[in-house]
Amino acid sequence: MDIKRVVMNKRAVFLLFVVLALFFVLLTRFIYIQTAKEVKGHDLQALAEQRWEKTKVLKGKRGTIYDRFGDVLAEEMKSYTVYAILAEDQPSYVRDPRKTAEKLAPYIDMDVDELERLLSVDDKFQVELGPNAKNLTHERMEAIKSLQLEGIFFREEPKRYYPKQTYASHVIGYTERDMKTARMGLESSLDDLLRPEDGKISYQSDRKGVPLPNASRHIVPAKNGYDVYLTLDSNIQMALEQILTKVEEQYKPNKIIAIVADPKTGQILAMSNRPSFNPNEYEKITNYINYAISERFEPGSTMKMFTVAAAIEEGVYDGQELYKSGQYRIGPNTISDHNYGRGWGPITFDEGFLRSSNVAMAILALEKLKKERFYQYLARFGFTEPTGIDLPNEATSLIADQRPIDAATTSFGQATAVTPIQQVQAATAIANDGKMMKPYVIDRIVNPDTGTVVQKTEPEVVGEPISKETAIQMRELLHKVVTDPAGTGKAYHIDGFDVIGKTGTAQIPDPNGKGYLRGRGQNIFSFLGMAPKDDPRVVVYVAVDRPQLEDHEVGSEPTVMIFNTIMKQSLQYLNITPKVEESVELEENGFVTGNYIGSSVEATKQKLEEAGLEVIVLGSGDVIEAHVPTEGKRLLPGEKVFLRTDGDAAMPNMIGWSMRDVRKFATVMEMRPTIFGNGYVTKQSIEPGSTIRAGDFIVVELEATIKKRREVAQKRRE
User: Fold this and answer.
1) CB distance 556 to 525 below 8 Å
2) Would you give the DSSP letter of residue 254?
3) Cα 337-340-345 angle, rounded to 5 deg
C-alpha cells in the first residue's frame, strides 16, 4: 500500500508541475498578448476594429452645367436598375416566371419569351434583365414597383442626364453612364473640376451592423464637383437647334456649322453642328467633331471683309477707284471672278466688293497692301493663331504663303484654311469699333458647397487690328452687300433691322487631289453677318456644306433660312425694336397711350376700346400691373394693347397675329419667344387657355402667304 501511495504521490506531483507549467505558459502568453496585442503577426486591435467597425462611402455629386439663365444642361440624377432574385431560399423570389415576364416585359421593352427564359435560369441567385432594365427614371421605377411582382428588386445608381437632349452637344460633350468616363466637350476638358471626391463615415457597430450608442464616429465629408455656368442663351440655342434640324432634314447637307456671339464681350450665345447627337444616347454618335472650332477649311468670300478692312486701315483703299474686273494675271496663274471670269467690265472697288470680285481682292492684296502688309493684317485679325476659346481641341489655321499667288488667293478665301471661330473673333473687331474680343463659353465656375466663385471669365480685348473709323466704314460697305442691288447678300435682308455681312461660297478640295470638287451645290455656302449696323449686338456665322438642292434652288437658301431665323431670334432676345414699329408709333395721327399701371382694368379697357383698339387682358386681377405699348405711343385703330394684371394668366389664341403683336405679348408677359418665318401666326407651342408664367418659352410659326393675309384682313373686318 505504501508503495502505491508513493507512486500516486509522485504522479500527483508530476501532474501538479505539468498543470503549473501549462498555467505559466498560458499566463505568459496572455501577458504577451495583452502587452503586444498581436497573434501570429496579426494585430488583434485591428482585427477587433475590422470586425466591429463599419465604413460607408459618402458619395459626392458631379457638378452641374447650366446655361446663362441657370437652366440645367447636364446634371447627375438617380437612376434605377431592375434585377430579379431567383433563389428559392429567399423570402421573395420569382415564383411564376411566365406571369412575371408578361407583366414586366412592356416596361423594359423586352420580348416576353426572352424575359421568361432569363427568369427561369437554374442555379442562379439573381439575374440582370438586359440593357433596357438599366438607367430607369424614378417614374418608370415606381410604375414597375406598383405591379408588386415577387422577386423583382431595384438598385439605385447615379447617372448623367441631359434634359435638353440635342442641345449644344459638341460644346457640352457627355459622360458615360458609369459616371467614370467623360467624353468630348466641357464634360471632358473640365472633368477634373466637375468630378466629385467621395467621402466616408466610420463607426462601431454590433454584429448586425447597427451603430453602437455613444460610439465615436469619424467622418470625411464628400466634395461635390464644381458647377459650371455657360454663356449660352437657351432661347437662341433652342431656336438654332430647331432650324438646323429643319435644314438638315430638308437639304441633307454633309455638315452645318453655326455660331452666335456677342461682339461686345466675346460671349458665345449659341453654337451647334450637324450632324449632332443626343448625349443621353451617346452610343448613336456619328460625328465627334465640333466643326465650329476643331475643323479648318477655306472660308471663301467671307474673308474679303478683312482684306478690305486692312486696305481701308492702311489708307490704300479708294472705293470709287476703277479697276478692270474679270481676270487678273499673276505670272503663269490667272485669278478669275466667280462668273467664269467674265467680270462686269471696269467697276469701282466698292462695287467689286459688293459683287464679291476675286480680282478686286487680289489687286488690293498684291498692289495696294503688298504681300508683307497683307499677311501682317491676317495676324492682327487673329488668323495665324488659335483663338484660345475655352473649349477643347481647337484647330490651328493653315496660312498659304509660299508662292507669289498665295496672297492673292488668300485675300478672297482660297488656299488658306481657317476655323469658323477665328472668323467670328475677327468679325468682332468690325462690330466693336476695332476692338477684337476673345470668344468664350464659360461664364463662371462655382463651388456648390460654399457658393464661392472659383473662376470667372471676363471679356478680353485680344487686339485692335483696325480703328473705329475703319470699322464704321467697313460696316457701311457690309450694309450695302445686303441692301444694294449689286450686293450678293440681298437674301439676308430682314425687315426692320439693319443687317450687314458678307456671303461666302467656298470651294472644297477634291479628295483625289484633282483641284476642287465641281458640280451644282458642291460648295460650302456661308454668311458672316451682324446687326444692327450702327451698333452691332450680335455676330452670326453660318456655313452649310454641300446641301442637296432642287433644280430651282440656289446654294445660299439653307444658309439664309438659318441666318435669318437666328438673327431675328437674337435681336428679339436683346429687345432691339425693329424700325417698322417705330414708324407706326410715330404716325402723326392716332391714339396716344397713357400710363395705366395701377388703374382699373375695366375702365381702361373701355377707354381703349372706344378708341378703336383691340384690348387683350392677361390675368384675373382687377388692377393693371403692366401694359404694352407703354406710355406715349401712338396707335392706329385696330392695333392690340396688352394689359397684364395679377393672378394666373391664360394663353391667348395667337393664330392670325402679326410678329409685332407676338413681340408685344412676349414683352408684357416676360416670356421668351422663338419665332419662325414671317407674316402671321399659324402655329403656337402653348395651347390656348393654358396657364402661362414669366420666363416661359413659346415657339411660334408665321406664314406670309397671300391667302393668310386675306384671312387676317377678313378677321379684322369682322
Assistant:
1) yes
2) S
3) 55
Q: Cβ-count burial of 348 within 10 angstroms (0-12 exposed, 13-18 middle, 19+ buried)?
A: middle
* Of 466, 454, 465, 460, nearest in space to 439 by CA: 460
Q: Residue 412 CA to chain centroid, in angstroms?
A: 32
Q: CB-side exposure of 417: number of CA atoms within 13 Å?
A: 13
Nearest to 619 by CA among 627, 609, 610, 630: 627
CA separation (Å) from 587 to 407, 627, 635?
Answer: 53, 20, 8
- Alpha-carbon distance of 251 to 426, in angstroms, equals 29
Distance spanning both ends of the chain, measured CA to CA: 143
- What H or E segment, with its residue span, contains residue 626? strand 624-628
pLDDT tens per residue across span 141-190: 888 988 888 888 988 888 899 989 999 999 999 998 778 889 999 999 99
Catalytic residues: 301
Q: How far apart, in whole angstroms, are the C-alpha atoms of residue 658 and residue 406?
A: 51
Residue-wise pLDDT for 591-612, tens only, equals 888 889 888 888 898 889 888 8
The 3-state DSSP class for residue 676 equals: strand
Q: How many Cβ atoms are within 10 Å of 715's Cβ, its own excluded?
A: 11
Measured distance CA(508)–CA(529) in Å, rounded: 22
Which grid coordinates are listed for 74? 447636364
pLDDT tens digits along 378-396: 999 999 999 999 999 999 9
- Beta pairing partners, 292: none
Whether the bond into 629 is cis, omega within 30 of 0: yes
542 contacts 258 by C-beta, under 8 angstroms: yes
Distance from C-alpha of 426 to C-alpha of 309, rounded to nearest angstrom: 11
Q: What's the grid cell of residue 479?
A: 450694309
Tally of CA atoms within 13 A in the half-sphere of 680 that contains its CB: 16
Cell numbers of 368, please?
495696294
Please write the tens of the pLDDT for every residue from 550-577: 877 888 899 999 999 999 888 877 777 6
CA nearest 158: which of 16, 293, 60? 60
pLDDT-derived band at 670, boundaries 50, 70, 90 = confident
Written as nine digits, the cell of 303 is: 474673308
